[in-house]
Amino acid sequence: MTIQFNDETFRGDYSFRNSPWAIKRFPFPFHEDSYMYSVNMEQHRGGPAGSVFEKRFDVDEHYVSEMRDRALVLAEDPLRCQSLPHMTLAGWDLLELIMVSKSEDYPDLFELHRDGDRWRWVNKPLGIDDTFTFMDETTLPYGPLEYITRQTQGDFAVLDQRDDNLWMDAGMVTTQADWSLDFDIGMNFFEWHAPVPLAHELGIFKRALKFLMNVQQGAPARRLNWTMTVNPLLDTSPENYHKWGIQKTELTAENIGAKQHLRVELQTFYRLPRSNALVFPIRCYLIAFQDLVTVPKWGRRLHRVIRDLPEELATYKGFIANRPLMIDYLSRHDDGLPTSPGVWADLETEPPLQK
Amino acid sequence: MSAAPQKAKAGAEKIEVIVSAVVPVNDLVTRFEFRRPDGAPFPPFSAGAHTVVEMKDQGRTRLNPYSLMSDPADPSLYAISVRRDDQGRGGSLFLHRQVKPGDRMTITYPVNLFPVDLRGRKHVFLAGGIGITPFLAMIAQLEKLGARWELHYSVRNAALGSYAGDLTARHPGKVRVYHDDQQQAIPLGDLLDGQPLGTHVYVCGPKGMIDWVHRTATEHGWPKDNVHSEEFLAPQPGTPFEVRLCKSDMTILVGENESLLEAMERCGVDAPFLCRGGACGQCETDVVDHDGSFIHRDHWLEDDQRASGKKIMPCVSRFVGPTLVLDR
């Protein structure tokens, strides 16, 4: 289908909206009525037609506006994109992966023409038509990592693999759930995950590291993660906490349906071929509570998950103070009926709200 | 997304290939070049990567890892060089005797357990015999990146020095070849002492050489993380033994000339694996119960894990005794 790109903002007047199409394809992250950490990985090779899992790098109606928001963040804070000197090759790997994937998956939007090392890249939604020499940085306006991720939704952590660990040695991070590339740059897997509660005790990170170091070329993987955000903010960074943190106190029973958003990350993992680095794209999807509850199954289930979530997790995810408001709102969309297993909306088979 | 975590898939993704050339390099070593049947380019790869070659040998499937030695920047072909091992279990003999140009074969996507540390200010390669193969790809890659490197290559004699002539002709001043039959040896101590800060050393060759390099580097004050090695182990024959597989609910017999992993595969058990050489850790299996002793041959398990009797790497390790029960 042809995508109609929204003209919207993720700051100021917050004109961000999800169309009915975007609501229906939202990556709802809970496969049952409760939530606990797990190494919930699966192969990333397609998914149901139209779902966010179908393409290697999902492009949706928010694409053009998200890229505009990224440019604003970078203009204020260039350190959101960094690449240590040994990661340039990984940057070229990522540029190639994205250009090849997008031109194959969305031929009406993106074109890649290769003649040896002479490449022409056409990005129609953003009006870009550049010719450059692959592996020659002087022929691009930015380094390869910054060039391609200014044109691709989602954050990108590029991890070097050495000494039996993964190292956060490059990235583009402007739509993050309260973590900082500038703070984490150069850290290893255990260092940058140190603040996460409970998961260490469960042995989650040891197993996750082992899994990730074994992600092989040609066999990408994916998982979902989630948190909560008041107002449709892409940039919930520690650097700007003084701007957005205060907005969490503005939530009321009257505005919660419009203001409170479930924030879901589609995290994918690819082995990069030339550098042997691992790239970790983290794609952020936002949905307002009032839109989410239009899917009866999701309204029922979100209420139960938020109500029963361990206190440590609600604290870590930053919504412990607003949880009573959330439960109050969501309980009105939970009639106690059972829910079907799995994450899908099941609009045709799940009954409408009975109250 | 599915509800349940997925089971690890056995092995890397596969690529169908045609043998495009079989080139004798010397009396012991032959190079096999592969192309794709549809002429499509191969995936790019990182130097140091290996591929697992699937061989259909009289009803039995052999899966052996070999380093990719071709130029990683050339997507038109993959190449491996194989040393004939007359005492081995037969994989190299099969390749040398049975495989002809035009044959169709299946290999895996590249997997890299021996990557170049791209932070290195300089890279010193130490090769022994057929251990030269990953360095051929590394040299090609580092030349393109304009990085500093040198190679010290120990061979039995001039006639068995695979690619030694080529390398010295193409990179005079960067390659030194040492001939055993002329009592030449890599002057390792001096070599290590003379390197600039930020140098990384890589060794690939016989086990004795790898141990010697690690030991000497430690004695000369080198940081552990600046010394890299790769040694593929071939499974060794041994006394047959019986294994109970709980999850699969079957008891199997591991024959003299097959590995535990191969025996499980023969019996239709889909066990995870990647390198099949005791290095990657993918096939690590929990031991439920045992009465007897393990013959651990992998590079993966820690000493305390071995002592615990609760883990085994079925690709290369064996067992002697009446009872072994695995969680597989």
TrEMBL record, chain A:
Record-given protein name: DUF3445 domain-containing protein
Lineage: Bacteria, Pseudomonadati, Pseudomonadota, Alphaproteobacteria, Rhodobacterales
Source taxon at top rank: Bacteria
Listed InterPro entries: HODM_asu-like (IPR021848)
The organism of origin for this protein: Pararhodobacter aggregans
UniProtKB/TrEMBL annotation, chain B:
Name recorded for this polypeptide: Ferredoxin--NADP(+) reductase
Pfam families referenced in this protein's UniProt entry, alphabetically: DmmA-like_N (PF22290), Fer2 (PF00111)
Residue span, 2Fe-2S ferredoxin-type domain: 241-328
PROSITE patterns: 2FE2S_FER_1, 2FE2S_FER_2, FAD_FR
Cofactor(s) listed in the protein's UniProt record: FMN
Listed InterPro entries: 2Fe-2S_ferredoxin-like_sf, 2Fe-2S_ferredoxin-type, 2Fe2S_fd_BS, Beta-grasp_dom_sf, DmmA-like_N, FAD-bd_FR_type, FNR_nucleotide-bd, MRET
Record-level Gene Ontology MF annotations: 2 iron, 2 sulfur cluster binding; metal ion binding; oxidoreductase activity
Keywords: 2Fe-2S, Flavoprotein, FMN, Iron, Iron-sulfur, Metal-binding, Oxidoreductase
Gene3D superfamilies: 3.10.20.30, Nucleotide-binding domain of ferredoxin-NADP reductase (FNR) module (3.40.50.80), Translation factors (2.40.30.10)
Domain called FAD-binding FR-type: residue spans: 12-117
Organism: Pararhodobacter aggregans
Keyword Cell membrane among UniProt keywords: no
